[in-house]
Each structure stands twice: as C-alpha cells, then as structure tokens.
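Researcher: Sequence recovery benchmark, item below. Answer with residues only.
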C-alpha cells in the first residue's frame, strides 16, 4: 500500500516537473495541423536528423525541420514546391517556387521586414541565421491581423499547438511600414507569391541575390 502511494507521489512530481519545465515533446510527436498539414516535434534532432520525409513522391526535407514543414504545406495546400536549399534562411534568396504538376516557375516577391507591404496569408516568414539559430528558420504565415500574425511551423519550441497555428507573433506598423517582431530573433522578411493584387515594395529591388546553389552552403545571413 505504502509503495503504491510513493509511486503516485513520484508520478505527480514528475508530471509537475514536465509541465513546468516546458520541455519539448519527444521527436515525432504530432503537435497540430493547419489546413490538414500536420506538424511533428523535432525535439533533440535539430539539424542532426538524416531521415527524409516525402509527400506525393517529392522529398519534403529532413524530419522534422522547419523547411520540411514549409515545403510539405506548399505541396499539400498550393501544389507548389521549392528547390533544395542548404539552410532555412536560404529560402530568402529564392526567386521562384515551381508547380509540382506542370513544373511551371512561380515568381516570388522577397519582402523585407520593415516594408510598406503587409505580409499576406501563405507567405513564408524567414528568420536570419544566428549562433543560436544556425540554419535560420521558416514559418508559414496563416493569418494576418492588425497587430499580429499567426504562423504554422515545425522545429520552434516543439510544443503542442493550441489551434490551427503554432504561434502568434507581434506585428507593428511604424510610419506605414510593417515589422514582425519576435523577441530577439532576427527576421529577414517574408516571401510572397506574386499576384496582381499584391503590394509591391520597390525597395525589394535591393534585396539579396538569388541562391543559385553553386556557393557554399548556408552562406547568407
Ligand atoms: C531523433 O531523436 C530521437 C530522440 O529524441 C531518436 O529516438 C531518433 O532516433 C532521432 N531520429 C533521427 C532521425 O535522428
Ligand atoms: C492568435 O491569433 C488568432 C487570430 O487572431 C486568435 O484567434 C487566437 O486567439 C490567438 N491566440 C492566442 C494564444 O493569442
Ligand atoms: C526588422 O527590421 C528592422 C529594420 O531593418 C530591424 O531594426 C529589426 O530588428 C527587425 N526585426 C526583427 C524582429 O528582425
């Protein structure tokens, strides 16, 4: 009898510790989904996983990195994909996606953080590479409000989602320019699919050049 009470106490303490320590959930745990695109925990596997994931016979990336989710989301929701890139931050140097059925090239706008153009739903939010964040990060923008955006992603916290998004991130507007502000994490900007209605930021002509694949991996910061 006494033993079983000890075990119950131990379990309660363990549970409290797990809840309070905000530990990332075990690798592969289903965290939530957006438009039926499921996200899984990448806990402890950061850039070390060598397991590829696939959707519709296309390699989506390494389980379960941010790039893997972004590519899988684009394939499932928009029938689009992007070429292989060494780092998540390198998505900021792509000039196009491609249609997975026709192969047609779909031009992209590269919109810097601090642009006159608001992010739009379906844009890819791109984080800079830093020491803490050595491959950068990418998240799909799934909602755009007046003071925040919602994103869906993998490999950021690796916690259970509370809705059809992983996080809300603050968005400020200063002098008609839009800034996405995520604590001390540097955001390069967002990649938007070109369409007629989309705001065009002329400053974007000064954006970094396209990643062509011939230079060393993860070169750009
Ligand atoms: C990822 O990490 C888990 C431990 O958290 C381990 O069991 C699993 O084998 C790892 N997977 C890969 C592909 O490295
Ligand atoms: C995140 O933003 C969405 C859309 O505005 C909102 O419905 C939701 O309640 C927000 N979640 C949190 C945790 O603030
Ligand atoms: C957004 O851009 C502004 C202007 O370039 C910069 O000062 C700020 O640090 C950036 N914010 C983030 C979160 O990266």
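Model:
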């Amino acid at each position: 009898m006494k033993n079983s009470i000890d075990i119950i106490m131990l379990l309660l303490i363990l549970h409290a510790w797990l809840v309070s320590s905000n530990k990332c959930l075990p690798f592969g745990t289903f965290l939530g989904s957006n438009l039926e695109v499921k996200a899984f925990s990448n806990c402890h596997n950061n850039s070390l996983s060598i397991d590829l994931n696939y959707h519709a016979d296309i390699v989506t990336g390494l389980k379960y990195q941010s790039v893997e989710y972004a590519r899988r989301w684009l394939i499932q929701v928009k029938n689009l994909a992007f070429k292989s890139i060494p780092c998540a931050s390198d998505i900021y140097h792509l000039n196009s996606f491609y249609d997975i059925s026709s192969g047609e090239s779909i031009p992209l706008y590269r919109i810097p953080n601090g642009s006159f153009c608001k992010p739009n739903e379906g844009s890819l939010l791109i984080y800079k590479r830093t020491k803490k964040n050595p491959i950068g990060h990418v998240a799909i923008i799934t909602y755009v409000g007046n003071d925040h955006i919602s994103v869906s992603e993998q490999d950021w916290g690796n916690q259970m989602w509370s809705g059809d998004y992983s996080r809300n991130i603050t968005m400020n507007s200063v002098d008609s320019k839009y800034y996405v502000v995520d604590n001390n994490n540097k955001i390069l900007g967002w990649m938007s699919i070109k369409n007629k209605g989309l705001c065009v930021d002329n400053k974007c002509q000064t954006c970094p050049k396209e990643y062509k694949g011939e230079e060393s991996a993860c070169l750009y910061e």
